[in-house]
């Protein structure tokens, strides 16, 4: 019988895309999501959906009426800015929520757990590209909670007192982009924020001088890594960077997006604002480890992936 995967946060951008791909590949999927930023329309109709909160163990328990073989823990507060506005909310969801998922996994003897960690775990880095062995010194409160959740997951993976082994993997995802990333939520990914602005003819706001750079990885590549790792023992107990390995500055990103909309800075207003707390200057993933152990590599070229989001945005924004 096909394995059943519990996808937490399966109504959100990353979770819903991964859930769709799991179903496409023949897995059964259960989703828990409190719909705080996720949307019901993203939920695959073939999934079992539990509207619930990972902060509440009773809600999580409802996911186990069918046997769960694998957990993808993706639910989380995904915003650096919100983590500064309300650090306690960020802590409760990202850390307590993760502990609750671990407790449920142990209670139900789930043997596989993959966790959505973040490049913000690294904080300010001495050099790029960053390797997984580099020190984690998060500077955003969000980075602290994502890293903390990661450590709870990985520490559980080496516990010998459980009577069985919970095989864990954490993915430090860089800037993931793709369809369904909110085009209206200013707290989410910069690619979809700028595309949403361009599609609606709104000013584009850049925080800082725009020379900060990011590593953008397409959701299809992220889904391949997560799903490919399920049955791969070389992924057990490991942390992986998931990025493209290519760095693009925010200024370059804006220019590429405006060009794809047939416009430029001459016609479209781009304004600059002071840098925000927790902002990392340059980020670029070293993906050697994922290539070697997961036999994974990013397939989606940035211009093609971006065009796909733009096509989707044009359909969505009219
Ligand atoms: N988007 C990225 O580039 C990126 C990079 C690294 C890590 N991550 C992590 O990946 C995960 C998904 O991010 P995303 O970009 O898809 O964001 P998202 O906001 O679209 O998805 C998060 C989902 O979790 C749900 N959720 C939030 N709090 C919950 C709770 N307490 N209980 C149940 N459900 C809850 C939301 O409703 C939403 O559906 C997050 O944990 C985020 O920290 C994202």
Write up this protein.
The chain is α/β, with parallel strands linked by helices. It has helices spanning 13-24, 57-61, 80-85, 87-107, 141-157, 190-200, 219-228, 250-260, 288-293, 302-317; strands spanning 4-8, 28-33, 48-51, 70-73, 112-118, 167-173, 175-177, 204-207, 213-218, 238-242, 247-249, 270-273. The strands form three sheets. It has a seven-stranded parallel sheet with strand order 3-2-1-4-5-6-10, with helices on both faces. The chain is globular. Bound molecules: nicotinamide-adenine-dinucleotide. Nicotinamide-adenine-dinucleotide (NAD) binds at residues 9, 11-15, 32-38, 53-55, 74-78, 93, 97, 116, 118, 146, 173, 175-176, 189.
Q: How do the helices and strands line up, and which of them pair or pack?
A:
Layout: E1 4-8, H1 13-24, E2 28-33, E3 48-51, H2 57-61, E4 70-73, H3 80-85, H4 87-107, E5 112-118, H5 141-157, E6 167-173, E7 175-177, H6 190-200, E8 204-207, E9 213-218, H7 219-228, E10 238-242, E11 247-249, H8 250-260, E12 270-273, H9 288-293, H10 302-317
Parallel strand pairs: 1-2, 1-4, 2-3, 4-5, 5-6, 6-10, 7-9, 8-12
Antiparallel strand pairs: 9-11
Helix pairs in contact: 1-7, 4-5, 6-8, 6-10
């Amino acid at each position: 019988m096909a394995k059943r995967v519990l996808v937490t946060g399966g109504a959100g951008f990353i979770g819903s895309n991964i859930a769709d791909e799991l179903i496409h590949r023949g897995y059964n999927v259960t989703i828990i999501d409190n719909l705080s930023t996720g949307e019901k329309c993203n939920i695959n109709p073939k999934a079992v959906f539990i509207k619930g909160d990972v902060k509440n163990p009773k809600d999580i328990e409802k996911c186990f009426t069918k046997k769960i073989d694998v957990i993808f823990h993706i639910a989380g507060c995904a915003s650096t800015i919100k983590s500064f506005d309300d650090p306690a909310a960020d802590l409760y969801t990202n850390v307590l929520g993760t502990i609750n998922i671990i407790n449920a996994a142990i209670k139900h003897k789930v043997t596989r757990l993959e966790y959505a960690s973040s490049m913000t775990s690294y904080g300010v880095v001495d050099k790029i590209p960053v390797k997984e062995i580099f020190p984690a010194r998060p500077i955003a409160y969000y980075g602290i909670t994502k890293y903390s959740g990661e450590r709870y997951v990985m520490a559980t993976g080496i516990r010998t007192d459980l009577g069985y082994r919970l095989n864990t993997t954490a993915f430090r995802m860089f800037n993931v982009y793709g369809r369904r990333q909110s085009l209206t939520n200013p707290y989410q990914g910069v690619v979809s924020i700028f595309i949403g602005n361009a599609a609606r003819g709104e000013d584009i706001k850049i925080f800082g001088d725009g020379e900060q750079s990011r590593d953008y990885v397409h959701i299809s590549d992220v889904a391949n890594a997560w799903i490919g790792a399920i049955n791969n023992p070389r992924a057990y107990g490991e942390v992986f960077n998931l990025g493209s390995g290519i760095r693009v500055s925010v200024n370059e990103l804006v220019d590429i997006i405006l060009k794809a909309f047939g416009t430029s800075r001459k016609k479209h207003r781009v304004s600059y604002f002071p840098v925000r707390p927790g902002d990392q200057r340059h980020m670029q993933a070293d993906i050697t480890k994922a290539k070697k152990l997961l036999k994974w590599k990013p397939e989606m070229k940035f211009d093609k992936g971006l065009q796909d989001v733009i096509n989707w945005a044009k359909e969505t924004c009219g």
